[in-house]
Specification:
Blueprint (H helix, E strand, L loop, with lengths): L2 H13 L4 H17 L28 H21 L2 H8 L6 H9 L6 H11 L22 E6 L11 E5 L5 E3 L14 E8 L18 E3 L12 E6 L4 E7 L8 H4 L4 H9 L3 E2 L8
Helix pairs in contact: 1-2, 2-3, 3-4, 3-5, 3-6
């Protein structure tokens, strides 16, 4: 189930030194997810809990038995993996989190309550293997299955090289993905004010006015189409000039081996560029970028 994600994370960890730590942690989390609940059956041979047992703060519809199971089984593994393989600041922060009310933390995340960045990371990483049932929202750009916001956008490969593939959105709260307009902002619904930001070349001249800070190092991102020698030609950002929000877009036509949820984690230079331009991502990814 996680084979493609593991293989892609291993590949990108070698290709992108700037994302090595993040992808190393992601690989450790893949091991946790796979061992905790491969295909709906616990690795220890026990059956997954049935819904309907217990009540609690922000309980998911149908009860919070899943949350109690996840707090007891998955959350400790996520914390251990993060402490062992995460970037130092995150590992230290997780090490300072006590056992506490794990089920309460997960229920708060499901209910959309305000959490600290570390709590949000722990909840999202744990809930990856837990079915989340939420009331679907009708708002455009929200997940038709659970009502969550989009995490990223990606383009399917097209048979015609002159035509872009169909645009898909991937939910930040559940595994669902859905087709969406190629020219409409998923955040505010604006159309016609889309700007594409892509890597223009790997080593811009230091004095280039388009390069922003003269001390910038690494890939240069700007309002251009990607170039063949780009470090990550499959990645770009699509922003809305009305609400100033953006999503990372992964183009499978440029890299058929891309796995959108993994490739998006390597887009840190694009995220930094977008922050410099005053744009905010619709939803930070699992690692908080």
């Amino acid at each position: 189930m996680y084979g493609q994600e593991r293989a892609r994370a291993l590949e990108l960890r070698e290709r992108y030194p700037h994302a090595r730590e993040v992808l190393g942690l992601y690989l450790a989390l893949v091991d946790v997810w796979e061992s905790a609940d491969p295909g709906g059956v616990r690795a220890d041979g026990g059956s997954v809990p049935s819904s309907g047992a217990g009540e609690g703060r922000g309980a998911a519809p149908g009860g919070n038995a899943w949350l109690e199971w996840a707090a007891a089984v998955v959350l400790p593994r996520v914390m251990a993996a993060t402490a062992a393989h995460g970037p130092r600041p995150l590992a230290e922060a997780v090490g300072g989190v006590g056992a506490g009310d794990g089920a309460g933390l997960l229920a708060a995340w499901v209910a959309g309550e305000e959490l600290t960045p570390v709590e949000r990371f722990l909840a999202r990483a744990t809930m990856r293997v837990v079915p989340v049932e939420r009331r679907p929202e009708s708002a455009a750009g929200r997940c038709p299955a659970c009502g969550g916001p989009p995490q990223l956008s990606y383009r399917l490969a097209s048979e015609d090289p002159l035509v872009s593939g169909r645009r898909m959105l991937a939910c930040a709260a559940c595994p669902h993905e859905w087709s969406f307009s190629a020219t409409t902002c998923p955040n505010c619904g604006e159309s016609g004010k889309r700007t594409v930001h892509a890597e223009a070349h790997a080593n811009p001249p230091a004095a280039s006015p388009e390069a922003g800070s003269a001390s910038r190092t690494g890939p240069y991102v700007g309002r251009h189409g990607p170039v063949p020698e780009a470090m990550f030609p499959q990645l770009r950002a699509e922003s809305c000039e009305s609400c100033h929000r953006y999503l990372i877009d992964v183009d499978l036509g440029r890299d058929p081996g891309a796995v959108p949820r993994v490739d998006e984690l390597a887009a840190v230079p694009v995220d930094l560029y977008m922050a410099e331009q005053g744009h905010t991502k619709i939803t930070a990814n699992l690692m908080g970028f």
